[in-house]
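Running log. JK asked me to keep both predictions on one page so they can be read side by side. First protein, sequence followed by its tokens:
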Amino acid sequence: MLPVVIGLSLAMTGCSSDLQVAPEAYRGPALSQETLNKSYLVVAETPGAGWAIEIDATRKSADGTDVYLTLRRPNPVGAYAADPVEQRVLTRVSTERPLRLFARVANYGSDDEQVYKRVR
């Protein structure tokens, strides 16, 4: 496994109120959550280098806080190591509230509006 890449996300409350969630479960690279200094970290295990993870929006709900993520596939022009890579992105979501993750996978450079799926 390649070294851990740590990113910081401001976990902004997104401007878009029309986030769409599909009923089926998320089936992309593995996602999990950890804690750091009373905030949640989202951990993505991508199949190789070149992938990117972005927090698109954060929403408070009756059940806790929902975080919406996009994982982007690598640029197809590049050459990347095929070794699994673990990426971590820090949210500003307090561990005092439950966290629910919703994610989607997009191609490099794509602005397609794909729906999010619940990470189980």
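And the second, directly underneath as requested:
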Amino acid sequence: MKGSVTTSDTVIGSLCREVDGIRYRCRQLLAAMARCEDSGLFCRLRNELRQLHERRDELLHSAKEWQSLGAKDSLSIEFLVEISSRPLVYNI
């Protein structure tokens, strides 16, 4: 069937990709904030950055909760906990 998905996906895998997307977007926001000269835009960028941090914290909390409940796919959950625990932005 044309257009069908050929790879399987898991909820944990999807959440891992979401954390990676959050990390990428945070880098973009910080670069934009460094160049920003408009105070209104800067506030909107800062708010989006805060929301991304909050979402990452939600994902980490959920992963730790699944871990404590003894979910079956423990290795994937450990990976999600690991990448969710990493800083969103690195100083280079």
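Observation for JK regarding the second prediction: The chain has a mean pLDDT of 88.
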